[in-house]
Model the fold of this input.
Amino acid sequence: MSTITTEELSATTLLRFATAGSVDDGKSTLVGRLLHDSKSVLTDQLEAVEHASRNRGQDAPDLALLTDGLRAEREQGITIDVAYRYFATPRRRFILADTPGHVQYTRNMVTGASTAELTVILVDARNGVVEQTRRHAAIAALLRVPHVVLAVNKMDLVDYQESVFAAIAEEFTAYALELGVPEITAIPISALAGDNVVDPSANMDWYGGPTFLEHLETVPVSHDLSHCHARLPVQYVIRPQSAEHPDYRGYAGQIAAGSFRVGESVTVLPSGRTSKISGIDLLGEPVDIAWTTQSVTLLLEDDIDISRGDLIVPAKDAPATTQDIEATVCHVADAALTVGHRVLLKHGTRTVKAIVKDIPSRLTLDDLSLHPHPGQLVANDIGRVKIRTAEPLPVDSYADSRRTGSFILIDPNDGTTLTAGMVGESFASPEPVKDEADDDGWDF
Amino acid sequence: MTTTVATVKGGEDGTDSPYALSHLDALESEAVHIFREVAGEFERPVILFSGGKDSIVMLHLALKAFAPAAIPFTLLHVDTGHNFPEVIEYRDRTVEKHNLRLHVASVQDYIDRGVLKERPDGTRNPLQTVPLTEKIQSERFDAVFGGGRRDEEKARAKERVFSLRDEFSQWDPRRQRPELWNLYNGRHAPGEHVRVFPLSNWTELDVWQYIAREGIELPDIYFAHERDVFARNGMWLTAGEWGGPKDGETVEKRLIRYRTVGDMSCTGAVDSDAVTLEQVITEIAASRLTERGATRADDKMSEAAMEDRKREGYF
Done:
């Protein structure tokens, strides 16, 4: 790959994406090839991998060693934790959340997918859509990742047959659409042989779509602000109290959704007081308009009481505040979440006391059925919960806003992050609750 | 960025909307968000400041995050005693310019008091951990900003943005909190603290591009200059009172620059004629070596050198 010029570098956007795949489906090989072919593996790193591979008695460099950064991972030959990788092409910069495929670390897929704009789900062309594929698709749908790529890998082992690819793509697409996944792109590849990863494959001339990398480079990083409710969680109040700025009082935060303009009428929640935006500072520079995900400071016409944890919204588009939250959650801690559990809930910049009032159901990802009243959620469980908060919170539905519709639950005793929460209905068309007393659950 | 855009729509023709941030704007905005979260949630945060480019960029971001008010943090430098004089001069000038408070934890003090023992190889980088962690405890810092980037090293690639350390400052990679959305969890018990890495998602190239875009001043040693150096373990080291060169190592004058700034005993220079930011960026974009691979002796000690030092409390 040719050297990137400075001009090209300054014009690029950032795409955050996550990988998901089962053990042995070739995820490390795909990641290794992407990094390698985009010049992101440098000589000293490759030498270190070659050296380590030789020490282990392996003939060829094991590209998985590039991504397995911890002692325990190298010892066991598995990936334990999310690793973040960085690479660039002349068209775009990428942050890759490389999430483990091993079944017991699914909470890490949730971690990776929570900030991703695209998720890659890998399947082995010989095996097609398996249980794990459906789970990964369900998590991508649950977290409302805008773009999903189905990478049908190991096409070299099925003689590059179009019919094999077409059948898998069709089955997956039908399943994912049912979950409400907004966009699916299926690409036939061989990560090992390099087919359709960076370069178009000569072995699959029946395929007319983009290569894997081309798709990553061109998928739109969408900010369709016209459908967004503008939201600014107040992080910090900036008051210089200096001779130069005696009366400056600015409300600093990162715009979570939508856009704000000078002159716009706004409401501050939960107090409900209103004012007008008199100025917007974008890191020291005054601007007329600012939008998601810019970190800004808003100045208001009236001197009203606003502090960290408040939410500034357009007066004409304020969410309701509530102390009773219904949400879909993914439990990420080792200790179980039970009814009656007293927790802290962090939503935006506000952390409040809360209590788990009810756990109406646990989701079985295999068939998306709901198991009623499981009593508790254990690590990696996905379920519905009802939470009562000590103070009213302005929450959006997660379907409307990934930022102001999400929250985490924290153990007040030791600070452990317990649960990832998404407000509102989880999927486009949830299945009715199935009453099965003998369902002893699953773990993945 | 004072333009007013009339339409609020985009992305439908397969291109990025006018509201997609450039990658530098996105990284800047994320880092500022992290600084403000810490200011909002912690009592005694401190920024590790060495006068190296990453900590200089951190300071610049912090200044922007709280403008026009002052930064609500103090600075901490772990002084190995083997620093480049140009960097110490830069450090002190910067502290004065922005009217900041600087804490110094001195490795030399620990050696003089007999608490730490000089290593046979003269490398002081691993010796920084004790002064650092003791300073954190004695000053009761509860959040410590570091300029670490995940692209630097594979153990760092696993690091969270908010990384909880126990009362011994230890990092346990198997017990990290999942980090979801941008909802950072800063809860910690008394005696524990959180290491915070606002530049987690930046690469070396991003840092340089940002320095160029913002016109940030750097110590001169980042640009090509003639210097007396000698070769050790395939790297050019600066001759000096720290203990180099040894017998059999010959000093020569070369045109070099530094990619990283650290302890003189283990920070290598690279041959370079890049004297402007533009030339540095071109050089890095074409380099086939990582920053640490090219310039850090201490990371070459073992496959898990960084992980092991991080577990002990290194940043």
Notes: The first strand of chain B starts at residue 45 and ends at 48.
